[in-house]
């Protein structure tokens, strides 16, 4: 048993060390709260229903994830006590940007709040700049009324715990989440954004873009996870976010459907010569993914691939101007925006990684 514990401790130490150069998110909470499910759904595109069969996690696990910044998401199993002397909790909490604590709202949550209080006290003591984020999770099973009551109750009790610990000035953010809708992506978007040092530049750039392109709302999406790493300063409403996230999915599905086969020799079309196909492929690969469509209400939805697996998704209200002119203006301004993104990224001095999608496709 002793050997087992020290193995885990070493794992945590090594993983924390490995992750020092990254923004680290620590995912904690009691057993069966939903931590692994959240990781699998948000970062691995697992279908929410498939999480029913996930086994309980017994060792700390770290996921590395690259979006505009490099992220390390470490999940700490609920059944381990991190305040035993054998754990190097101090080093662990010092290297963390955000502590995300998951509370199962469908279960009795008093013990979770007590556990959260102990962790917050310790985390804040060793790392006063840590962001404390609480997910009131699994709210899909609750009625609208019960949801609001649970939120109010959890917030109030956490506030009381903070007061008792003499931490009343510490800011804690609460999110109502479920893996069965977009709320978990919304919450993670906000959590990740707080870890991006260039966030205010990014927001200003999007404000500039929206102002000059008849854009109502714009998101800079991470294509893989559908987290948005930035948006303009207009308020986000969840339906707009859902619409844009679904457009990202649709675009990627269409891209997968129409992309040129990887094996050039596997084509059955004898009229296309190998060299033509190669030419076509390299032309396509050097450009970007793009998809524009018009909704029933006349609003134009505009998707364009940016850098580092990111895509800009914008809703353009034409207000009587024809679609083509709106798109021409948007294209021009988005070119400038993309250039700005590249410059910000170059200045952040982190070596860029190859983007995972690099094919242009106009689907209208
Ligand atoms: N209804 C509902 N169930 C959820 C949600 N998220 C996770 N679950 C379920 O909760 C159960 C436990 O989820 P896990 O992800 O294994 O929980 P965990 O916190 O990682 O648990 P440990 O590994 O034991 O620490 C699974 O059956 C999930 O399907 C949610 O948003 N809503």
TrEMBL record:
Subunit structure: Component of the GSE complex.
Native source organism of the sequence: Henningerozyma blattae (strain ATCC 34711 / CBS 6284 / DSM 70876 / NBRC 10599 / NRRL Y-10934 / UCD 77-7)
An MF annotation (GO) of this entry: GTP binding
PANTHER family assigned: GH16429P (PTHR11259:SF2), RAS-RELATED GTP BINDING RAG/GTR YEAST (PTHR11259)
Top-level lineage group: Eukaryota
Keyword annotations of the record: GTP-binding, Hydrolase, Membrane, Nucleotide-binding
Protein name as catalogued: GTP-binding protein
Reactions this protein catalyses: GTP + H2O = GDP + phosphate + H(+)
Chief place where the protein resides: membrane
Subcellular location: Endomembrane system
GO BP terms in the entry: cellular response to amino acid stimulus; cellular response to nitrogen starvation; cellular response to oxidative stress; endocytic recycling; microautophagy; negative regulation of autophagy; positive regulation of TORC1 signaling; positive regulation of transcription by RNA polymerase II
GO CC annotation: chromatin; fungal-type vacuole membrane; Gtr1-Gtr2 GTPase complex; late endosome membrane; membrane raft; nucleus; Ragulator complex
Family to which the UniProt record says this protein belongs: Belongs to the GTR/RAG GTP-binding protein family.
Role this protein plays: GTPase involved in activation of the TORC1 signaling pathway, which promotes growth and represses autophagy in nutrient-rich conditions.
């Amino acid at each position: 048993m002793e050997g087992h514990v020290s193995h885990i401790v070493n794992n945590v130490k090594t993983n924390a060390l490995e992750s020092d150069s990254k923004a680290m998110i620590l995912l904690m909470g009691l057993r069966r709260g939903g931590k692994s499910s959240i990781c699998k759904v948000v970062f691995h595109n697992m279908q929410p229903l498939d999480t029913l069969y996930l086994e309980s996690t017994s060792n700390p696990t770290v996921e590395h994830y690259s979006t505009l910044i490099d992220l390390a998401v470490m999940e700490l199993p609920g059944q381990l006590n991190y305040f035993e002397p054998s754990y190097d909790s101090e080093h662990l909490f010092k290297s963390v940007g955000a502590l995300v604590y998951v509370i199962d709202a469908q279960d009795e949550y008093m013990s979770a709040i007590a556990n959260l209080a102990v962790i917050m006290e310790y985390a804040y003591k060793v790392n006063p700049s840590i962001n404390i984020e609480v997910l009131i999770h699994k709210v899909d099973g609750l009625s609208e009324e019960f949801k609001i009551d649970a939120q109010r109750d959890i917030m109030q009790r956490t506030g009381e715990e903070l007061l008792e610990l003499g931490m009343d000035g510490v800011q804690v953010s609460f999110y109502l989440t479920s893996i069965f809708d977009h709320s978990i992506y919304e919450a993670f978007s906000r959590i990740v954004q707080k870890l991006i040092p260039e966030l205010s530049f990014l927001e200003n750039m999007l404000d500039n873009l929206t102002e000059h392109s008849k854009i109502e709302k714009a998101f800079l999406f991470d294509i893989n996870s559908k987290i948005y790493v930035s948006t303009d300063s207009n308020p986000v409403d969840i339906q707009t976010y859902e619409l844009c996230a679904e457009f990202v999915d649709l675009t990627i599905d269409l891209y997968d459907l129409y992309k040129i086969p990887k094996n050039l020799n596997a084509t059955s079309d004898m009229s296309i010569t190998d060299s033509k196909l190669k030419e076509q492929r390299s032309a396509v690969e050097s450009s970007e993914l793009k998809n524009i469509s018009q909704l029933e209400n006349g609003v134009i939805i505009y998707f364009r691939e940016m850098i580092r697996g990111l895509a800009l998704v914008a809703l353009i209200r034409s207000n009587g101007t024809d679609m083509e002119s709106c798109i021409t203006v948007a294209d021009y301004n988005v070119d400038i925006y993309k250039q700005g993104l590249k410059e910000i990224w170059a200045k952040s001095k982190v070596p860029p990684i190859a983007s995972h999608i690099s094919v242009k496709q106009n689907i209208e």
